[in-house]
Amino acid sequence: MMKFFKIRSNPVNLARLVLLWIIWSYSAVSLAFGPTLALPGPDTDLRMSAPRAVATGTTINLYWNSVAAARNYLLQYRDGSGAWQSSSDSYYGTSTSWTNVPNIVNRTYRMRACISGCGEWSSASNSITTSPTAPSITMPTTDTDGSYSLSWSSISSASRYEVQGESKGTIYSGSSRSLTRTNPSGSYSYKVRACNIEGCSAYSSTKTIAVKIKPGVPSLTLASTDADGTYTVSWGSVSLATSYELDGEQKGIIYSGSSRSKARTNPSGSYSYKVRACNSYGCSAYSGSKTIAVKIKPGVPALTVASTDADGTYTVSWGSVSLATSYELDGEQKGIIYSGSSRSKTRTNPSGSYSYKVRACNSYGCSAYSGSKTIAVKIKPGVPALTVASTDLDGTYSVSWSSVSLATSYELDGEQKGIIYSGSSRSKTRTNPSGNYSYKVRACNSYGCSAYSGSKTITVEIKPGVPSLTLASTDLDGTYSVSWGSVSVATSYELDGEQKGIIYSGSSRSLTRTNPSGGYSYKVRACNSFGCSAYSSTKTIAVNIKPGVPSLTLASSDADGTYSVSWGSVSFATSYELDGEQKGIIYSGSSRSVSRTNEDGSYSYKVRACNSLGCSAYSPIKTILVQIVPSAPAKPITKLGDGVGKYDVLWSSVTSATYYELHSIEQGMIYSGALLNYSITVSAGNHDYKVRACNNYGCSGYSAVATLTASNTFVRYQHTDMLGTPIMETDANGGVISRSVYEPFGKRLGGEKEGIGYTGHLQDTDLGLTYMQARYYDPLIGRFYSNDPIGALGHDNTVHGFNRYAYANNNPYKYIDPDGEAGQLVVANGAGIGGTMMCGPVCGGIAWLGGLAVTTWALNEAVDALSDGEGATDEEIFNSDNPDDGTAGKPLTQKEREEFWKKYKSENDDYECWRCGYKSDDKDEFEVGHRNKPRSEGGTKHEDNLRCEGTTCNRSAGNRGKPKTTCQDKKGCS
Question: What PANTHER family does this protein's entry cite (predicted)?
Fold first, then answer.
């Protein structure tokens, strides 16, 4: 809802209203007696130009040009093309504002000026839109299937909505007022805000939904029958299930857990089951019930029968089986040859092969048959006699044996290989290397084999074979091993190589050699008591020695950013490679040290040595911590401050310094902080000061000493306009201390200021009035608060004195009232009432020197304001026009504006236009401007591009880059 300007409720304002009624009533009566008041006539021009509206978030500022004769102004507004609505208040001055006015869309304003009557309405202002209010969000608190919707209320001024939630930030931005989400079980929070071209509202209150999805019904799997009493009940996997519950056997839940099957063991009978899936949010419905019929037949009995028999009579037997009442024996290719409760049966048969199997039976049926087993009835032959020589010298020899009755074949076992011959022959020729070989033999027929004969051994003694040589093709350190394989019956080995003949003879199978770079060839042979083998094939190794690992030397810390990395000399090295700073190899050459320069940080290095054959491994990593202590500042300077005995000590900034310490030779440290200046109050005499720069790593040495010679006398110049009103104060160096701008009837723009003000009179800031000696004057309404003590006859022109509350004959451009009794004509000679203030220890206060001071002509000239980019460095221009900045061409948000003003005010006492130098303590006269590159041309939000800029300069500059009219020209920035 629109908020309008209201007059402050205090006694002075109430008195103003009463006085206005008396004055204008009295003026109306006096008109009957003649034209005694200097009031505007009916032809007075009250036309107004269109006001200008500025919306920032939910704050609206309205500005209009003043009409010289106007007493007050009336206001109308409308939204879009709707009807005009009138404000119930009257407005004074040239601006007003409303705060916390959301949801305004395309609002325009118009105004008209009034005296006793009112002029025409002005044309409409530009249209404005303010930020919307926050919408309310609607959503369920719980959901059981993972899909749900959220919606929010409509905001009339919103063009889109932004939804944040699910710990993902913004999940939706658009014009819709509802959103469907699908999520697994969990807790999800959401909030929404409305946005338009002016910005976004605050977020709505957060609402949370709990998604609790129960699992589906699992499928049950169960056989319809079982024959042994042990069976498995199983079920399918269900999404989201964490456990399952199996109900059955008329016992309720017989299993609860994460498994998807359950083995059951039960006696014969009928058993039913059903299953359901569960998680932390509950359980599904049960599956359909399934039933199994348990009919237990006896188990399979174990059959026992000998594998062979030599006399034709043998026993077939079987084990006892639970639940069995009888057994059935099947065999001899005759079917069931026995049925009864006995567990054995004796059989008599001639030579041959006979198979048997057995099963157990009860009233439910019979088990499966046991595995079939076979018995062979047969007569084996006798044991043959073995013949073999005790020794052999060439590796080829014969093994033979005697003939045995009934044998049809013989089997020879030997050489630790098992049976190496089977057949009807009675001898076998063998060929083997040197060694001991044992043999045994047995006779066989169709019924089997006899026992083996006694074992006999032959010793074969031959020379060893050629060993295999093992040698690397290359070596990098000059020390390597030559080795060879073991050879059977070898007792020693001979190694020939290096063009030296036999360099080793012994039982070892390896030899370590150390040689300089070069090519070396080797061959080896095996020997025993019977002689030596031939040499192996020759193998050659190339020795290529790389240099060793150098030792790295590096300080652990550095205070100036420049340090040396060095390393030791290494034999065979022709160059070195230094790796570091996360850049890979940063140096390659023959030097053994490198100088590095880096900013604050931690830097690691490793080095290796190289030659034509390769490089060594890297040295262990070493790290240096760079912590740059700032350098000493230049000698500080001193200058007069603002007050008796007050001075400013200033010093230059130092790279990497975060704060400075100012020391007085008399008092020690008197300041520590980030500023580059410090104000002091001292007595007359000489005072010495020095400064040093510091950061987290330490402080620099002190600067040269600066000596301040204090006289405790200061000069301040006050500059007035032709009415005697102070409009500017400067110090002895010509620096501007303050500026003031007044409306025609004496209201000071930017707020009231204590001390000498309008036309040289004292300003009473407690009352908001001007003390003019004989009576108080109110610059807001342009009238005195009490009647004229000298009456109409006391004036040179009695007409001017008839209205005893009027100020300066109602013409403040030509008249002043020095004592509050009568107006005096101002001589327009360019001189103003002013003077110079000087104070010292002898005056006990402030003394005025001089009487009339001629106003400086430069104050009346137009100020040559700075244009875009004027005086900026290349770096500042780059930061203001960097397309990769991410903020180029984007408008400032309300939060960014607030942060700018907060930082600016923490560093400055007043607001100052960077273009023209106009100062004021009224923030409403200033805007955040672009110093080097306007936003419309791609300017960034970098701090180098943002400045405090007077509204007049900002509007006048536009996109031309230089203002035609400055704040100084208008004596204000409103």
Answer: PROTEIN RHSA-RELATED, PTHR32305
